[in-house]
Amino acid sequence: MKSKVLLGFAAVLSLVFSEGLIGLPPHKQTLCSEFLPKMNKIVPDYTELTPASQKGITKEQYFNIAERIYDEFAPDIESNRVKLKLITNWEDNKVKAVASKGRRLWTITVSGGFARLPGLTEAGFAVVFCHELGHFLGGAPRKTRLGKRKVTNEGQADYFATTKCMRRLYSETENQEFAKDLKMDSLAKDICDEVHYTNKNDQIHCYRSAIAALELAYIIKSLTQADTDEDYSYDTPDLSEVKKTLHSHPKAQCRMDTYFQGALCTKSAFDSFDVKDAKVGACNRQDNYTFGVRPLCWYRP
Q: DSSP H helical segments within 225-266, as ranges?
């Protein structure tokens, strides 16, 4: 992937994006959503004594994902006649991932503290960033904030993350490198291989998102401080069914299922979702899809 900024991108991203975009008038931002509500955790920067088991991703990976998101999706945002702003700060120890929607400026804030969460990989962090982007580009179902302003709801933002966003972030060459000496759950790999049997690149996209899905389920459990011994798995999906579509954050297994199903959807990553019709751009039960559909633990067709 060609970078628009080859030197000092991390510093530029922190300074320019977080300080704002020149030429835009002052305006109020509407808080759309956090990756999880009430994330009060603090994760300080690494030291030479920080063990690998207590680390997340590196500073370089943190800014690399932000760059990829901006390079790939800023044009999509600008087609709505608004600007995309990324606020990144590696030194911010708070665990924070927030999307905010203003009249002319859509903002994503993801802190260094989030990136340093123990066990978080680059793929997992990319899914988190994609989730926040999904509040803008994920289409229906949507939720209303402050009366008229609408954003994609939590479950659909998760679905967007792996149906569309993750599949546009990595090149075929990068996928081939990722697949070397890959270690992952055999069931998830077999399902990815079966569903995407006509396209090896899509298979590897599926591997990456499936691995991130399981990883994020346990990170969600940690961040919510859930008092449970529950384990998460690809073969123990959340079988509950909502009576009406849930707009708030689903439970960890349900979110894992959504990420995995999104990775299994065979619709094009460039087949955009629609803000009114939730069937557009998605794999739907009504269209006889078995894999890649939104889980019923949060979605009511």
A: 252-264
DSSP code for 201: H
Per DSSP (E only), the strands in 20-136 are 30-34, 83-89, 97-101, 105-111
The pTM of the whole model exceeds 0.70:
yes
d(CA 31, CA 289): 35
Buried (b) or exposed (e) across 10-32, using 16+ Cβ within 10 A?
beebbeebeeeeeeeeeeebbeb
Each residue's pLDDT, cut to its tens digit, for the chain (301 residues) gives 444 333 333 433 443 444 333 233 444 545 567 888 777 788 989 888 889 889 999 999 999 999 999 999 999 999 989 999 999 999 999 999 999 988 889 999 999 999 999 999 999 999 999 999 999 999 999 987 655 568 999 999 999 999 999 999 999 999 999 999 899 999 999 999 999 999 999 999 999 999 999 999 999 998 887 667 789 999 999 999 999 999 999 999 999 999 999 999 999 999 999 999 999 999 999 999 999 999 999 999 9
* Beta-sheet pairing, 149-152 with 142-145: antiparallel
Q: Which two tokens stand for residue 48?
A: 């030479």
Measured CA to CA, the distance from residue 131 to residue 241 in angstroms comes to 22
Please check whether residue 15 is in contact with residue 68, taking contact to mean a CB–CB distance below 8 angstroms: no
Q: How far is CA 268 from the centre of its chain?
A: 17
Q: Which helix (H) or strand (E) holds 176?
A: helix 172-179
Structure tokens that stand for 88 in this block: 């990144």
Integer angstrom CA distances of residue 100 from 15, 26, 112, 114, 221: 19, 15, 18, 17, 24
